[in-house]
Design goal:
Elements lengths: L4 H7 L25 H8 L14 H14 L3 E5 L2 H10 L7 E5 L4 H10 L6 E5 L15 E7 L11 H10 L3 E5 L17 E5 L13 E5 L1 H14 L5 H11 L2 H19 L5 E5 L9 H7 L6 E6 L2 H11 L4 E2 L9 E3 L11 H6 L6 E5 L5 H12 L3
Length: 389
């Protein structure tokens, strides 16, 4: 009988040792041993899958990779020390001098820095296209374009990009489609089902879900992951075995956690949508969202992020954050605890004012990562803080 991917991921386990443990053991070792010289030679030659060194393979890390591959429907993957190292590796392993990257303009601030500041140092060109107008993207494709990179939902504005449309575009022009699926998680959407070749995650966020460890992962087509593995093996952005052990256990509860996060977020979005102090509010599963139909088509739930613009702008944003009593102000999202942030002065502060305006990161924009607390308590804290705006 064919099992649901959630069941298969939960039951994926490192082969048991002679101790017959039920929970996967920790392999806190830098290197692995061989019985003889020939076995060692064959492993270094790539003739076996035996572990050599934890910089590029470790049983705990492999268990985590296997689980995310099952959930995303991917052939293979590689786990890294952080989400940004996964994003960077997905670029540097597959792009070379003279190549062109097409990216949606609404992306995480550090990803923007990598694309706009560092990729040009290696002779890699880029073009930003509007996240909410994928019908305009084909005109931006050049003869040297090799990859399309997108986030959906975008950070922090929650634009939804039609994965089927972009997947068809990538196929038509033989381009690699690379999707940051961090906000939706594999339980919210599976980009590979719509034509993506690579999917990246900051596992630090919803996958861990408790603000404990850093981690990143990129999964996708085996031949592409082979190149990413080779790049990471030599450059060393390795995930630690302990972090992999934590993240692997976290995947077992991802489904039930995202159900609660999404239900809480939808409850809060509905309650605040017409609040007198809010100019606009966005949540993918609200009918008022500009891409609501697309979200309902490709997402299983609306995710755990709500964003809204305060009518009073920057000062109202400061007043709101300073008045919160339950929600935390911290540089993270996807935690059990609800988090509020002000993207213009934090995650996207390095963008110019013009760049922020182009992606609708306004001075009064607030991003809420909705946690697992009782929904009424989260809402009450937001409402009392809004009174100060």
């Amino acid at each position: 009988m064919e099992q649901n991917p959630i069941t298969k991921a939960i039951r994926t386990h490192i082969p048991r040792t002679n101790e017959m443990e039920h929970s996967s053991p920790l392999f806190l070792t830098s290197s692995f041993c061989f019985d003889n010289a020939e076995e060692m030679r064959a492993t270094f030659a790539g003739e076996t899958d035996d572990n050599i060194y934890s910089r590029f393979s470790n049983p705990n890390v492999q268990e985590f990779i296997d689980k995310i591959c099952i959930l995303e429907g991917a052939e293979d993957g590689f786990a890294t020390a952080s989400g940004m190292s996964a994003v960077f590796a997905s670029f540097m392993a597959l792009l070379k001098k003279g190549d062109h990257l097409l990216s949606c303009n609404s992306i995480f601030g550090s990803t923007h820095t990598v694309i706009s500041k560092y990729l040009p140092n290696y002779g890699i060109e880029y073009t930003y296209v509007p996240a909410d107008k994928p019908e305009e993207w084909e005109a931006a494709i050049r003869p040297n374009t090799k990859m399309i990179y997108i986030e959906t939902p975008t950070n922090p504005g929650l634009d939804i990009i039609d994965l089927a449309v972009v997947g068809q575009l990538a196929k038509k022009h033989s381009l690699i489609l690379n999707v940051d699926n961090c906000f939706a998680t594999p339980l919210g959407q599976r980009p590979i089902d719509f034509g993506a070749h690579l999917v990246v995650h900051s596992a630090t966020k919803w996958i861990d879900g408790q603000g404990r460890v850093l981690g990143g992962i990129v999964v996708g087509e085996k031949e592409l992951i082979k190149e990413i593995y080779a790049f990471c093996r030599s450059t060393g952005p390795a995930m630690s075995p302990f972090n992999a052990w934590v993240l692997s256990k976290s995947t077992d509860t991802l489904d039930v956690r995202m159900e609660r996060h999404s239900a809480n977020a939808l409850h809060i979005a509905k309650a605040l949508e017409n609040h007198a102090k809010i100019a606009f509010l966005k949540y993918p599963f609200l009918p008022s969202h500009p891409q609501y139909a697309i979200a309902k088509k490709q997402m299983k739930n609306g995710g755990g992020i709500v964003c809204f613009e305060l009518k009073g702008g920057l000062q109202s944003g400061r007043n709101f954050l300073d008045s919160l009593k339950i929600l935390t102000l911290t540089a993270n999202l996807g935690d059990t605890k609800s988090i509020a942030s002000h993207p213009a002065s934090t995650t996207h502060a390095k963008l110019t004012e013009q760049e922020r305006q182009q992606v609708n990161i306004t001075p009064g924009l607030i991003r809420i990562s909705v946690g697992l607390e009782y929904a009424a308590d989260i809402l009450a804290d937001i409402e009392q803080a809004l009174e100060s705006c």
